[in-house]
Amino acid sequence: MTYRVVHRTHYTYESEVSASYGEAHLMPRETQNQQPYQATLTVDPFPEHYRERRDFFGNRVAHFTVLENHRELTVTATSVVDIRDRREILPRVGDLAWEDARDELRRDAAPESLDARQFVLASPAVGPTAAAVDYVGRSFAPGRPIVDALGELCSRFHTEFEFSPGATTVSTPVDEVLARRAGVCQDFAHLSMSGLRGLGLAVRYVSGYLETDPPPGEEKLVGADVSHAWVSVFVPHVGWVDMDPTNGQFVNNRYVTVAWGRDYSDVPPLKGVIYTEGEGQRLEVTVDVTTIPDDDPVLAQVAS
User: Which domains occur in the chain, in start order?
Assistant: First the structure.
């Protein structure tokens, strides 16, 4: 599938802002299953300074500075991305037991496994808790294939938790999310990561998007109109298995990956500092992910 992604963030400030300094994780990264043909970021008012870099995890990050006085700020990320179904990795995992994946990660000295070990450790927003490990561990019976265990865990999240924007904040602890049985995709990702890491598995946080309008006959997924988040579990000698606890499924070709890290704090879509005497602001975010047909002339142009 090939998608055009437009992510627009618009701030309206209570009082005039004299300076804005921003950092954005909004441009899709290139992976084995994903090829960005085009990715641009525009800032209005026009920034005096703009630069891009790759962060520690290889994500594309933009930094900008707006120094003229302004009451509104708009950041728009536009990209064209080709996606291949990530579920193709599942047959290669086969019937490998989850404990074998965990133990091989500890033994294996391959560069991929050494790099993955950092995602077993606690991170700023996600530490293993007894409650999270107990909840997640119910799907991980001794000797159970890791794909089966992850699939059941996804299904449990989808049926046992309510997607409820406003029920939590970016700082809500995982145990509180578990007690409420409610939250958003970020919360469900963090909670599942807490339990999986507590079991000794390497799990990273992935931010991105979902196709806004599903194919005919398919159900619209939760989180399709905003930035989405899911998790990725490492299996030595195979690779990363992506799953979406919010929608109870493994990640397919309707997902666009933007960035990954230890948790949300590593890859927020947009963050920054402003200088103003006002105390309030209004934020509007719109995300549109649309399919580009194979014969679309725009696709031919950007792919050439």
Answer: 2-82+267-303 (2.60.40.2250), 85-266 (3.10.620.30)
